[in-house]
Design goal:
about 725 residues; alpha/beta; TIM Barrel; Rossmann fold; Immunoglobulin-like; 3 domains; 8-stranded parallel sheet; 6-stranded mixed sheet; 26 strands; about 30% helix
């Protein structure tokens, strides 16, 4: 077995530096156009290409194996390539977008989705996925909220662990169906000002530690192999060149010694950020901050050698980075088998297998959130449906970051319903495009709806309207779709809206007009089948929101775990002017964190505490009886929140501390018990020490962050 330190000693300075470079596959192709195209544009030489450490986003086993073979033939020391890609919510079998997976409140399903994504990508030759993305998100204008699991640090942390377990398994070295995970975007990318992608982030270190860092730390505690830098600034310094963030916090305080990679072009972006005068200074700042690999710019390759020779960069920094890269390649077994799990034969068996499709269908159905239902759902036998809207027969249901998914392989909504009901039961009319409509389309929609018993209205965003660079200042549905609702409403038929989107929306013009509203996000490959399962009542919706839906974009950021003010708005002072409120809208979101309906109903009773005094050594047990008071079996997400009534620093009005998802038959009651310890009550004080305060607390148990019953207890120390 090759010793990595010995191998490092054999490498020339140039070979070391080139290992720190990641390129796309076209750089390694034999196309002579590269000599005047990408190679020339980035200042990349053939020698750099022959020694680059990693390739980004190769397509399929055939290509990855061919690229690896060619690379190894040119590698003087037999160092293999690392293949990395963005496998965010599935490779070929596409699961719902991550925000939707979060809405399942099911960590086992999240882990399962990641394991399937890992298996499908590993068999194509990919070694590393740029996931999980665990950025805390509180601004739905930011298109990348669809990659996150929401607005809560505790819940995001639990999902971060689940995704890492799914991608990496228990034995990354021995399990060839797994891939290394890379947590991103470090740090606080989800707090971009104005919800505008790539924008500035500015917050106190205390807020950073309390709200934004926990999920990254959880992923690393679970063994995540890599970290990706963020595009944004942290305390005025771009993350990719932020020595405090990457050296002091990530490396020294947290003890992370894995591989750190920049996001696409982020090293070079320090120049327009205004902290580097040129490529040489950008390279110096990044390597000093501890960035091991530069993605898709060549400042390391073009400048590190001269910086070392000029005495501006210590070669030990380069050696550290190269050694981390080599050790990851060793852990993945690439020195013994450069192709690892890549196999054209297994690729045919694994990609989009029946087992994987079934899992995608299950996750999708459990991710849907029923936002409104006035006895319109589930649909009843014999009802004739008019399926109307731009998503009635659309394959654009995979969502952003489904690079290797194929729309033609996705089950459209009409196909899913027709397979169950027969085509003659479901009349189809498009009604409008995503952002436009003709009078003819509107007339066809009205005609189809006139002959139906129920209108199923498939509305939403196109996938291009969210995701990276998908920031929107107006998060209502496009006017053409609101106009379509306006034309159909006077018919007096029940309207069931099925909503496809990657972010929380301002639902005015939709929710008040609909008799039922089912949030299905971008549901993935099996979307049409999963939606049919829920609409027809075969699956009882159990999804719950992990990101608040605003009453209006003017409230943003709006989130459940906010602080009180010195002049808080209360029911008693609502008519007063000089309190913290809007004059033209409520303070609270339209739909709160944790919210979601079911085809049955649940009641909570008998909330009890094992003691009303908690000390540092003991555990407080919180119990509640939950009863299914309806006529259908259903799953309820029981949520536990805590409030510190008076801390050294102001504390949130509620903080999620636990949850249980339980299945109840009609009339069945189960007792749910949560454990609360002193450790769970700690927070970052003014001196940035993590500790708790003695005093009064409230514990809340309920169906969401708004509708919960409380009991008091005291912490003594």
């Amino acid at each position: 077995m090759t010793n990595m330190n010995t191998l490092l000693e054999q490498m020339t300075l140039e070979e070391k530096i080139f290992q720190l470079m990641q390129l796309t596959p076209n750089f390694l192709s034999e196309d002579d156009a590269n000599l005047t195209g990408p190679l020339a544009w980035m200042g990349v030489t053939e020698n750099m290409v022959n020694n680059a450490g990693s390739v980004l986003s190769a397509v399929g086993a055939k290509e990855t194996m061919a690229l690896q073979k060619k690379y190894m033939e040119n590698s003087r020391l037999g160092i293999p390539l690392l293949f990395m890609a963005d496998i965010i919510h599935g490779y070929r079998t596409i699961f719902p977008v991550t925000l939707a997976i979060g809405s399942t409140w099911d960590l086992e399903l999240a882990e399962k989705s990641a394991a399937i994504a890992a298996k499908e990508s590993a068999v194509t030759g990919i070694h590393v996925t740029f996931a999980p993305m665990v950025d805390l998100v509180r601004d739905p204008r930011w298109g990348r909220v669809m990659e996150s699991t929401g607005e809560d640090p505790y819940l995001n942390s639990e999902y971060a662990r689940a995704f890492v377990r799914g991608f990496q398994g228990e034995d990354l070295a021995g399990d060839l169906d797994r891939v290394a995970a890379c947590v991103k975007h470090f740090a606080a990318y989800g707090a971009a000002e104005g919800g505008r992608d790539y924008n500035t982030v500015n917050m106190s270190e205390r807020q950073l530690r309390e709200s934004y860092l926990p999920a990254y730390k959880a992923a690393l505690d679970e063994g995540c192999e890599m970290v990706m830098t963020a595009f944004n600034t942290v305390d005025g310094i771009p993350a990719t060149g932020n020595k405090w963030l990457m050296r002091n916090l990530l490396r020294d305080e947290w003890g992370f010694d894995g591989m750190l990679i920049s996001d696409w072009g982020a090293v070079g972006e320090m120049i327009p950020h205004g902290v580097a005068a040129d490529g040489a200074e950008a390279a110096q700042k990044a390597i000093e901050a501890g960035v091991d690999m530069e993605m898709m710019t060549s400042h390391y390759a073009n400048h590190l050698k001269e910086l070392v020779e000029a005495g501006k960069v210590d070669v030990k920094l380069i050696d550290e980075s190269v050694l981390r890269i080599l050790k990851l390649k060793e852990k993945l077994g690439l020195f013994e088998n450069p192709y690892r799990a890549a196999s054209e034969e297994r690729e045919k068996e694994v990609l989009l297998s029946g087992e994987h499709r079934a899992a995608a269908r299950e996750v999708a159905a459990k991710s849907f959130v029923l936002l409104k239902n006035e006895q319109a759902l589930p649909l009843r036998s014999g009802q004739k449906l008019a399926l109307i809207g731009p998503f009635a027969e659309s394959g654009d249901i995979l969502g952003p970051w489904s690079i290797w998914g194929k729309q033609e392989e996705a089950v459209q909504l009409h196909a899913g319903l027709a397979a169950r009901l027969g085509a003659d039961i479901v009349a189809v009319a498009k009604g409008c495009e995503i952002e436009s409509a003709t009078e003819e389309q509107l007339r066809e929609a009205v005609a189809a709806a006139s002959e139906a018993d129920v209108i199923v209205l498939a509305l939403g965003e196109s996938s291009e309207m969210s995701g990276e660079a998908g920031s929107r200042g107006d998060i209502r549905l496009p006017q053409a779709q609101l106009d379509l609702i306006g034309r159909l409403k006077p018919l007096g038929k029940p309207i069931v809206v099925v909503l496809f989107n990657g972010r929380p929306l301002d639902l005015h013009g939709v929710i008040e007009e609909a008799d039922a509203l089912l949030e299905v996000w971008f549901p993935g490959t099996e979307g049409g089948n999963a939606i049919a399962d829920v609409l027809l009542g075969d699956v009882n919706p159990s999804g719950r929101l992990t990101m608040s839906f605003p009453y209006s974009v003017g409230q943003v950021p709006v989130y459940y775990n906010n602080y009180n003010t010195g002049r808080p708005l209360t029911p008693q002072n609502a008519s007063e002017r000089y309190v913290s409120k809007y004059l033209d809208m409520p303070n609270t979101p339209l739909l709160p964190f944790g919210y979601g309906l079911s085809y049955t109903t649940f009641s909570y009773s008998g909330i009890s505490l094992s003691t009303d005094v908690l000390n540092a050594e003991d555990t407080l047990h919180v119990s509640v009886d939950v009863t299914n008071t309806g006529t259908a079996a259903g799953e309820e997400v029981v949520q536990l929140y805590v409030r510190d009534m008076a801390g050294e620093v102001v504390r949130p009005l509620k903080e999620l501390k636990g949850f249980r998802k339980l299945l109840l038959q009609p009339g069945e009651t189960k007792t749910v018990t949560f454990a609360v310890t002193e450790e769970q009550l700690r927070y970052y004080h003014a001196d940035l020490q993590l500790k708790s305060d003695a005093g009064e607390f409230q514990v809340f148990v309920g169906a969401n962050s708004r509708d919960a019953e409380s009991k008091p207890f005291r912490l003594v120390k």
